[in-house]
Amino acid sequence: MPTTKLQKIFFAFFTVMITVPLFVIYNLAIEIGGMSNQVFIKSLKIIPVEFVFAIILEILIVGPLSEKIAFSIVNPREEKPYIITTVMICSTIVLMCPMMSFVAAFLFHGITVEFIAQWMQNMVINFPFAFFTQLFFIQPLVRFIFRGAFKNQLNKETQYNISETIQNY
User: Fold this and answer.
1) Tens of pLDDT along 45-64?
2) Cα dist. 92→29, 33, 46, 110, 158 in Å?
3) Would you kindly state where each structural domain of the chain is located, as residue ranges?
4) pLDDT over 70 at 163, yes or no
5) How many CA atoms lie within 13 A of 164 on its CB side?
6) Phi, psi for residue 74 in degrees, rounded to 5
7) What are phi and psi of 76, to 5 degrees?
8) What is the rounded distance in angstroms from the CA atom of residue 82 to the CA atom of residue 69?
């Protein structure tokens, strides 16, 4: 799990970098009625804009808030790491899905009389996709990349935590 500010930004960046293209392609394919080369062409215009919204939301709002929510549900000192990770992922999805569905409704359709309905529809369509892709594909991949990028730093933190635990006994 990322602990320093740099680690959290790195983690957020890679999560958003993988998530946004998947969701843009997914939503465009649904809107167009299936996958085609047109989906990829249209996605090139939308991905950079959604990336900016997603990274800002993740770093400034969702990341800190999902951590508070997760740690109000589980105690990180008592729970197993996979439980903490799962609760963190679910907390992030619960916050990010409505926010980015709002952004997507605005970008795809603008503010119209049907905006609330389109936003709600986006949430219903995106939530299952977000849940399964984040839990089983995106987060495991990002954690793998994260562990590789911060291997030395994580090893030092682990050694420090073990030494601290031994001293407390």
Assistant:
1) 999 999 999 999 999 999 99
2) 24, 29, 22, 25, 25
3) 5-168
4) no
5) 6
6) -125, 150
7) -65, -20
8) 16
